[in-house]
Design goal:
Number of helices: 17
Strand content: 5-15%
CATH superfamily of the largest domain: Crotonobetainyl-coa:carnitine coa-transferase, domain 1
Strand order of the largest sheet: 5-2-1-6-7-8
Largest sheet: 6 strands, parallel
Helix content: 25-40%
Number of strands: 13
Structural class: alpha/beta
CATH architecture of the largest domain: 3-Layer(aba) Sandwich
Number of domains: 2
Order of helices and strands: EHEHEEHEHEHHEHHEHHEEHHHEHHEEHH
Distance between the termini: 44 Å
């Protein structure tokens, strides 16, 4: 059972987050959940994209649910980086920081005096993360790095769905989230390396590369001559033998995974399947397997099939909706959500940090901040006087 103590694996590590949208903020939030101190730097006025947009047009008392999902355990400093004094404040922060994460459009960081080459002189121990859609030298470097666009460009949308249907993107922005996990992994590796060398380094996180990494198995088959054919049957993959796929039952759907064919044949007692089932896994006849299995699975309810198939060694699972999943004992035992009270949004349910450590438990130490909520606090820590802070506000530097 994990300890109830706050998770503090990265206590004492300071991160400057010049991020927006999802990949950057979510990657930084992973590190914040593990105890890092994060200062989120945004332009004055509360116009940050993730504060003004939300999926489902969902705003909780005016607070974007999109912002709430990826900005906890952070402080907010508003700063006009187009003004010299704003850049000077940022560099004072950099001098004391361990990590800087930015996902500006390529070239913007350099114009703001925040490129790695300049900041590494100021702070040689700085770990600098640059995240973008296609990479800093790509011919697509100036195009928007958005999840659906990357799924389309990388081939990910083309390998999902039935062969008689259009390309099928995933229903969740998985490229953003995988890119966020890669970002956090890269930072942790660079921190470890710095304990040995005393030096920081630059890390580049590219959404296109994250999308390809999600297809590691399938692309390995493709790159080495594998047959890549989508199916118009229930098969859910181009690379797995039958019956691997989604099957309609009497009342809903279930999936059959990589079950050994002899177990499937023994359970279903299909004479036509018997010759094919002499092999444990039969790729050559996968279409035939799916067509044989489809009408049989429609004869019982999902619950009846699961009760019957699972004890007989067939790998099967129900296709659950979100309502069904969160009511399921598996979800309840996994303890995947956390409930907090936000001063404006009210009662909010959030997904918890996905790892458990014996040294402590990740939780919400700081609610997702209001724009500039901690500006005075941070500037005072940097040594700016009350008079200077007042002047910055009048000049709209902060």
């Amino acid at each position: 059972m994990p300890s109830s103590a706050p998770l503090s694996l990265l206590q004492g590590v300071r991160i400057l987050s010049f991020t927006q949208f999802l990949l950057g903020p979510a990657g930084v939030q992973y590190l914040a959940d593990m105890g890092a101190e994060v200062i989120k730097i945004e332009a004055p006025g509360g116009k940050l994209y993730e504060r003004t947009w939300s999926g489902c047009d969902l705003f909780l008392n005016g607070v974007s649910a999109f912002f709430l999902c990826a900005n906890r355990n952070q402080r907010s400093l508003t700063l006009d980086l187009k003004q010299p004094e704003g850049q000077a404040i940022a560099k004072r922060l950099v001098a004391e920081a361990d990590i800087l994460v930015q996902n500006f459009r390529p070239g913007v960081a350099s114009r703001l005096g925040l490129d790695y080459e300049e900041l590494a002189v100021l702070n040689p121990r700085l770990i600098y993360v640059s995240a973008s859609g296609y990479g800093e030298t790509s011919p697509f470097r100036d195009r928007p790095g958005q999840d659906l666009l990357i799924q389309a460009m990388s081939g990910l949308a083309s390998i999902s769905g039935r062969g008689d249907a259009p390309p099928t993107p995933t229903g969740s922005p998985i490229v953003d989230q995988h890119g966020a996990a890669l970002l956090a992994m890269g930072v942790l590796a660079a921190l470890f390396d710095r304990t040995r060398t005393g030096r920081g380094q630059k890390i580049e996180v590219v959404m296109l590369r994250a999308a390809l990494d999600l297809q590691l198995e399938v692309l390995t088959y493709y790159l080495n001559g594998g047959q890549m054919r989508k199916s118009a049957t229930s098969l859910a993959s181009m690379v797995h033998p039958g019956p691997y796929g989604v099957y309609q039952t009497k009342d809903s759907y279930l999936v059959l995974s990589s079950s050994p064919l002899p177990a499937l044949q023994a359970a279903l007692q299909l004479p036509e399947l018997a010759p094919i089932a002499k092999e444990q896994y039969n790729f050559q006849h996968r279409e035939q397997i799916a067509r044989l299995v489809e009408p049989v699975i429609r004869t019982r309810t999902t619950a009846e099939w699961l009760e019957y198939l699972v004890p007989r060694g067939v790998w099967a699972a129900p296709v659950l909706t979100y309502d069904e999943f969160f009511a399921h004992p598996v979800a309840q035992s996994a303890d995947v959500t956390e409930e907090v009270e936000h001063p404006v949004a009210g009662h909010v349910r959030l997904l918890r940090f996905p790892l458990e450590f014996s040294s402590g438990r990740a939780g919400v130490r700081r609610l997702p901040p209001a724009s500039g909520e901690h500006t005075d606090e941070i500037l005072q820590e940097l040594g700016y006087t009350q008079e200077e802070r007042t002047r910055f506000r009048h000049a709209k530097v902060v």
